[in-house]
Every structure is written in structure tokens, then in C-alpha cells.
């Protein structure tokens, strides 16, 4: 089991890397407690265009991946320190503190937790 942590140790992700054919990370299979998640880029690194193909990514606008994140503010601070263009966390009308960003393939990601 690997444990990925930020420098300030406020964000913790526990996972097992099952397989990846590319050490540069074009795809990876993660497993934790019987759940598997495969993450893959739209293009392998050698075939990645300078700009996203809008025809290929047009359908991504209706896909958001939600991740439970007990320290949304800490995640935001870390991502911003890494120059990631994340939106400042806000509390949704239904009580979840949420931070949104886009991944390199234009999928929307949301890190969220019940607001205190």
C-alpha cells in the first residue's frame, strides 16, 4: 500500500498501484479495499497534440468526478502551490464544501466534504 501525502500532510490518499505500463503515468490502475479505479489520459504522451482536440473532448463537459476530501481548503492550497488552476472552495446550497478544477483531458474534478 502506498500513501501519497502533501508536504503539510493535510491531504492523504491511500492506494495500491496495481499496474501501469508507462512510468511517466499515462495511465494507472488504483485499488483500495476492493474498489478499483483506472485513470487514463485521452492521449498517450507521444501522441498528445499541442492543443486539445475540441471534437474529442466536447462530450466531457457533462462529466464530473467527485472525490471525498476531508480538508478541501488544504487541497486547494496545495494545488495552488503547484500552480494548478483550481477554483476557490465554496459551500454548495446542499452543504458540501467543494473545489473544482479541470484535468489535462478537460474532465471536471470536484474535491468535496460536508461543510462544518
Describe the structure.
This protein is mainly beta. The chain folds into 2 domains: 45 residues, no CATH class; 56 residues, 2,3-Dihydroxybiphenyl 1,2-Dioxygenase, domain 1. Helix content is 12%, strand content 39%. It contains 2 helices and 8 strands; from the N terminus they run E-E-E-E-H-E-H-E-E-E. A 4-stranded antiparallel sheet has the order 1-2-3-4, with no helix packed on it. Strands 5-8-7-6 form a 4-stranded mixed sheet, covered by helices on one side. A hairpin with a 2-residue loop joins strand 3 and strand 4. The radius of gyration is 15 Å and the shape is globular. The chain starts with a strand and ends with a strand. The N terminus is likely disordered.
Q: What's the order of the H and E elements?
A: EEEEHEHEEE
Instruction: Domain count, please report it.
Output: 2
Largest sheet: 4 strands, antiparallel
Strand share of the residues? 35-45%
Shape: globular
In short:
The chain has 116 residues and is mainly β.
Give the secondary structure arrangement, pairings included.
Elements: E1 2-5, E2 12-19, E3 27-32, E4 35-40, H1 54-57, E5 64-68, H2 72-81, E6 90-91, E7 96-102, E8 108-114
Labels describing this entry:
2,3-Dihydroxybiphenyl 1,2-Dioxygenase, domain 1; 116 residues; 12% helix; 2 domains; mainly beta; single chain
Amino acid at each position: 500500500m502506498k500513501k501519497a501525502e502533501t508536504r503539510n500532510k493535510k491531504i492523504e490518499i491511500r492506494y495500491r498501484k496495481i499496474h501501469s505500463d508507462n512510468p511517466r503515468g499515462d495511465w494507472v490502475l488504483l485499488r483500495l479495499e476492493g474498489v478499483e479505479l483506472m485513470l487514463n489520459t485521452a492521449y498517450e504522451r507521444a501522441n498528445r497534440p499541442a492543443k486539445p482536440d475540441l471534437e474529442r473532448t466536447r462530450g466531457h463537459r457533462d462529466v464530473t468526478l467527485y472525490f471525498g476530501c476531508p480538508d478541501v481548503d488544504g487541497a486547494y492550497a496545495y494545488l495552488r502551490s503547484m500552480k494548478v488552476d483550481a477554483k476557490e472552495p465554496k459551500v454548495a446550497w446542499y452543504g458540501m464544501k467543494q473545489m473544482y478544477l479541470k484535468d489535462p483531458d478537460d474532465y471536471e474534478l470536484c474535491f468535496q466534504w460536508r461543510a462544518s
